[in-house]
Each structure stands twice: as structure tokens, then as C-alpha cells.
Design a protein that fits this description.
Blueprint lengths: L2 H17 L2 E6 L3 H12 L4 E7 L2 H11 L3 E4 L2 E2 L2 E2 H11 L4 E6 L3 H11 L3 E4 L4 H12 L7 H12 L15 H11 L4 H8 L3 H14 L5 H12 L1
Parallel strand pairs: 1-2, 1-3, 3-6, 6-7
Antiparallel strand pairs: 4-5
Helix pairs in contact: 3-4, 8-10, 8-11, 9-10
């Protein structure tokens, strides 16, 4: 085989290898974490970070334009809930692969995220190797959750019940949960209203719903409960 032909084959193989890389988009409101994830993912031969965002609006626009193979989403973002982003992305493209990477307990959020359209849920305290495994599992068309949560789901479905798994925020709707999270981050009513593009009165209504559903006595109790849930 002549040198020129061998060189062309090598170039073709390199191009083919690049084509096989799965594009990953990262959505998280912590720059250091995004940087760490990018370094981890880009060190893999089959994965490539194609973009990142720290809020719902920018993430939706970038994902819609860039069409990544998989989106890694945190639940708590700069301008709202990752669950809302998951719902929007899934509505726009039902085939979009989404993996949630969160510090929040999966007993509270995993099922909610899966119902919104995510294909997996992994907590941030898991190892880097487990995260890479979760990414590849979702890319392969499978669902990723921890073994413990998977057993809980199987038991629940076996009993034909669709009830909470004992987590405190389970009874809340997605919008109520979004308000609850923002309260836990220390935002005032008018700040929540501005961020979610709602009226203050509507935010107060959601807070009242949270108070009733979580059986709390007053707004201050909602605040304490939300802060404890965040940390």
C-alpha cells in the first residue's frame, strides 16, 4: 500500500472517530462544576461537550439550535427549575436524551424528573465513573437510576400504586416545587415572582398551597422547611 493511500485511510479513520463522538450539553448554575464536568467528559474518546448554560432560557435556546445527543441538567438553575426545562425540551423534541445530575435526594425528585421526560437521574455525590456510565446508558436508550431507587419503583409498580415514596416535597406540583426551591435559596416573594414571571399574589397562592400540602403552620415554617430541604 502506497504512503498516500495509507495517509488517506488514516484521515478517514480520524474523521470517522470524530463523527462517533456523542455531543453533550451541560446545564448547571455553578461554573466550577460545569468546568469540571467538561474536563471529565472531553477526556473520553466517545464524548464531547458541545455547549453549556446556567439557566432555563439560554439552555432551551442552545439545545434547540445545537441538537446535542444528551443534555445533563441540574434541578436548581439560575432562573427556575430544571424540571420545567426538561418538560420544555421534551415537548419540543420527545426523543431528546436528558440525564439529571443533582444534589437533591432522588427519592423526592427522580420519579418527578422521569415523568417530565428525563431518561435518568444521578446524584452529584456519585463517582465520575458512575456518571460516565449513566451518560452512556441513557445514550444507549436505557433508563438510569440508582439500584436502590430502581427497587423502590419496582415494588411500587408491582403493587399498582402511584403514591409518594415518603419524601416531604412529593405532594407538590412542579410549579409549587419550583417556588419551594426558590424559597429554600433565600429569595423573597417579589424576587420569586420576577424570576418566574408571575405576580406576587400568584406566588403567595403557591406558598399557601405548599403550606397546606406539607401541613405547615405558617409562611415562616415553609421557609425553614424549604431551607432544610435544600441543605
Amino acid at each position: 500500500m502506497e504512503g498516500g493511500e495509507r495517509g488517506n485511510i488514516m484521515i478517514a479513520l480520524e474523521v470517522e472517530t470524530k463523527v462517533r463522538k456523542n455531543k453533550v450539553f451541560i446545564v448547571d448554575d455553578h461554573a466550577i462544576l460545569r468546568e469540571g464536568l467538561s474536563h471529565l467528559i472531553n477526556s473520553e474518546e466517545d464524548l464531547l461537550v458541545c455547549g453549556e448554560a446556567d439557566n432555563v432560557t439560554d439552555a432551551f435556546d442552545a439545545v434547540s439550535d445545537g441538537k446535542p445527543d444528551i443534555v445533563i441538567v441540574d434541578i436548581t438553575l439560575g432562573d427556575g427549575s430544571g424540571i420545567r426545562l426538561i418538560e420544555n425540551l421534551t415537548y419540543a423534541n420527545p426523543e431528546q436524551m436528558i440525564l439529571v445530575l443533582s444534589m437533591h435526594d432522588e427519592a423526592t425528585y427522580a420519579e418527578r424528573c422521569l415523568k417530565a421526560g428525563a431518561r435518568g437521574y444521578i446524584m452529584k455525590q456519585e463517582s465520575s465513573m458512575e456518571l460516565l456510565s449513566a451518560i452512556r446508558k441513557v445514550l444507549n436508550g436505557d433508563i438510569y437510576v440508582s439500584d436502590k431507587f430502581n427497587i423502590q419503583l419496582l415494588h411500587k409498580f408491582a403493587k399498582n400504586k402511584f403514591e409518594g415514596l415518603g419524601a416531604p416535597a412529593k405532594p407538590l406540583s412542579n410549579r409549587e416545587l419550583e417556588v419551594y426551591q426558590l424559597i429554600g435559596r433565600g429569595l423573597k416573594k417579589h424576587e420569586i415572582a420576577e424570576r418566574l414571571k408571575l405576580s406576587v399574589k400568584t406566588v403567595e397562592t403557591y406558598i399557601e398551597h405548599v403550606k397546606v400540602k406539607l401541613q405547615l403552620k405558617g409562611t415562616h415554617d415553609v421557609f425553614i422547611h424549604a431551607v432544610k430541604a435544600m441543605y
